[in-house]
Write a structure and sequence with these properties.
There is one protein chain. It is built from 4 helices and 37 strands. By secondary structure, the protein is mostly beta strands. The longest helix has 8 residues. The protein is globular and about 80 Å long.
Length: 671
């Protein structure tokens, strides 16, 4: 891990547990990051972060995009908890930036990975890099079939019209995904001052879910219905990213330069969800279907300029324009038991056109005083032009807003091995398009969801103070932080009908997170190294839900302990233990859980060939319980992953470098 004035850079090449996995699974072992059993990622306890891939924003949700990137293709992961004014102000808790591998040596290199595991999990990927004179070319591809099985127990109690309705269910829930994609990048440097870059990334994926549940329904403690429920959701997506860039070094100075970049993201998808209920005679008694089709597109242009000065300070200025458009055509259907056909429900069907353009500019001044005090001041402005048009209701919601986002970063070198850091930033989290759509759609016979076009953006003030100490064969750091969020967006649950609940997002109020994060890495022996991470914080939220004032707080902590052992004959063994404490939510709480992962690696053929065996959730302890408690609604949910989870991965590296670059590589100058 390398500490910079505004970020931490983590080299992940030595993580044995990353073999054959995707970047989502790799993030489970990164400080400040938490990944729950459903694949939801949070940064310092917040899911409102921004995901960048090679400094470019992903058009997809973070959990989806991270599943498409093989861990073997990742060079570094940057954790930016308080981004400077250079970056997009979007994101509650900061930025996770995935830096992909790029070959810098003359010649050709190839990386091939294959993996397989139980529960029909398998995949592979490759990366070929060619570096010849003034041209660098990379091409890669990946394929992955992933399955996850969980046993689900749910209990729900609703008080409605003086009746008490209880719905209990048990069954198996399965996620299964198929992803495949290709990517290519070209860099051309015609001379020492200019360079051009072009990139394309395309992927096709299916994200499906299926569940079989047995239901019991009670009214006032009397059993009124028993039946089986079958659910399936089919989602198909196509993603395409095109990017280009030009860099010019003024007077050949690497510090004095101008960059112009452009990017186009297309994300097209469709969803078909079907839920059917069967009585004891295996005859269908109820059916609901919902379909959703909607492409989204984003076009972005950046211009950045950097100029150094004689006193070793630097000025950075830039501008950016985003043009974004989402379309969503959603329809709901109900089974007619007489005709055995699904009939469209106009009340639960609609078309939405979502337009959001953002115009931004920034300026940053940085430098160093007496070689010890580093400083960086920045200011960013963003103008948001947003419009939501609902064709079915013939209504429009429009917002035009100008915001300013200052930032400040400081570092002081106490000694050669001791450094302190302090920083501050203001940020924004705009509601996602699907959170603004007001129509109602059915998730299952007992659950409906609805957006909220009146959602306000979250505004975040973030403060940090840290100390970093270099150790012999290791490092230690501790950071204190405080984050204040206004207009906190939370998804709540409430009674919708006698036996159904409604899920919708609201601005719940104001929240505060105050905590400390500790990181300790040390190689004690040539055969043993330790990695310890601890994040503890006090979370407080106060506001009102349906005119009812509430105030909640909880003290939570996450612990990660990794031990790596270098054994004889190039064998390596790694044990990673992760504990997440219980957490209070806006309407309830979630339980704690423990996870232990094991990995065993062996290198062959002068490190050209590697094999890794993994045993995830080794103690079968990743069960997760959640509770929701309101005036007229109580829910309980238990998710138990199927066990054990084992996999085998094989990695092959082939290089064809010229002799000159091999010498550079040995000296540490190469890739």
């Amino acid at each position: 891990m390398t500490q910079k004035i505004d970020r931490r850079v983590i080299n992940v090449g030595r993580d044995l547990a990353s073999a054959g996995t995707n970047s989502l699974q790799m993030l489970e072992n990164i400080p400040s990051v938490t990944v729950d059993m459903d694949g939801n990622v949070s940064l310092r306890g917040s899911s409102g972060f921004t995901l960048l891939i090679d400094n470019k924003p992903s058009p997809m949700e973070a959990s989806e995009a991270l599943q498409l990137i093989p861990a073997s293709n990742i060079k570094d992961i940057e954790i930016i908890t308080n981004p400077s004014a250079k970056y997009n102000a979007e994101g509650t808790s900061g930025i996770i930036n995935i830096i992909l591998k790029k070959n810098k040596l003359e010649g050709v290199s190839t990386l091939i990975n294959l993996n397989m595991g139980n529960y029909n999990n398998y995949g592979g990927d490759f990366l070929v890099s060619v570096n010849k004179n003034k041209i660098k070319f990379n091409i890669g591809g990946n394929f992955r079939n992933a399955n996850r099985y969980r046993d689900i127990t749910q209990e729900r109690t609703i008080k409605f019209d003086e009746n008490i309705s209880d719905v209990n269910s048990e069954g198996l829930h399965r996620f299964f995904r198929t992803n495949y994609g290709m990517n290519a990048a070209l860099e051309w440097s015609p001379n020492r001052k200019s360079s051009f870059s072009f990139g394309v990334n395309g992927n096709q994926r299916q994200y499906n879910a299926a569940a079989n549940y047995d239901f019991q329904e009670y009214v006032n403690k009397n059993l009124i219905n028993e039946y089986a429920n079958k659910e399936r959701t089919l989602r198909q997506f196509f993603g395409l990213t095109l990017s280009s860039g030009y860099e010019y070094l003024i007077a050949g100075d690497k510090e004095h330069r101008i960059n112009i970049t452009g990017m186009y993201n297309l994300h097209d998808g469709k969803e078909d969800a079907l839920t059917e209920s069967f009585n004891n005679l295996d005859n269908i008694s109820q059916g609901n279907q919902s379909t959703e089709v909607g492409p989204s597109a984003l076009f972005r242009v950046n211009i950045d300029y950097e100029k150094p000065f004689k006193n070793k300070s630097k000025l950075k200025v830039g501008a950016r324009t985003d043009f974004g458009n989402n379309k969503d055509d959603q329809n709901s259907y109900e089974l007619n038991l007489v005709t055995n056909e699904y009939v469209k429900l106009p009340l639960f069907s609609t078309k939405v056109d979502y337009l959001q353009n953002v115009y931004a500019g920034y300026a940053i001044y940085s430098g160093k005083l007496k070689k010890k005090l580093g400083y960086q001041f920045g200011l960013r402005s963003e103008y948001t032009d947003r419009k939501i048009f609902m064709e079915t209701l013939n209504s429009e919601t429009k917002i035009e807003r100008l915001d300013f986002f200052p930032s400040a970063h400081f570092s002081y070198q106490l000694s050669k091995k001791n450094q302190v850091k302090a920083n501050f930033s203001r940020r924004i989290q705009r509601p996602r398009s699907w959170n603004l759509e007001p129509f109602i759609s059915w998730e299952d016979p007992y659950t409906v969801r609805q957006g909220n076009p009146n959602l306000l953006p979250e505004y975040i003030l973030s403060y940090e103070l840290g100390w970093i100490k270099s150790l012999k064969k290791g490092n230690f750091s501790i950071e204190l932080y405080h984050r204040n969020t206004v207009n906190t967006i939370q998804r709540i649950q409430e009674a919708y009908d006698t036996n159904a609940i409604l899920k919708r997002p609201i601005n719940a109020g104001t929240s505060n997170s105050t905590g400390a994060e500790l990181s300790y890495r040390k190689r004690f022996k040539d055969w043993w190294s330790l990695d310890l991470g601890l994040n503890s914080f006090l979370y407080q939220i106060s506001g009102s839900i349906n005119n009812e004032v509430f105030e909640r707080e909880s003290f939570s902590y996450n612990i990660r302990l990794g031990n790596t052992f270098n054994l004889k004959n190039d064998w390596k063994f790694q044990v990673v233990s992760k504990y997440t404490s219980a957490l209070a939510t806006t309407q309830g709480r979630s339980s704690d859980y423990l996870a232990v992962d094991l990995a065993l690696k062996k290198d062959f053929w002068r490190n050209r060939l590697s094999s890794s065996f993994q045993f995830r959730n080794a103690l079968n302890s990743m069960n997760r319980e959640t509770w929701v408690e309101t005036t007229n609604l109580t829910t309980y949910r238990l998710a138990e992953p199927r066990w054990p989870e084992v996999s085998l991965s094989i990695a092959l590296r082939l290089n064809n470098y010229n002799h000159k670059d091999k010498i550079k590589s040995i000296k540490g100058e190469g890739f």
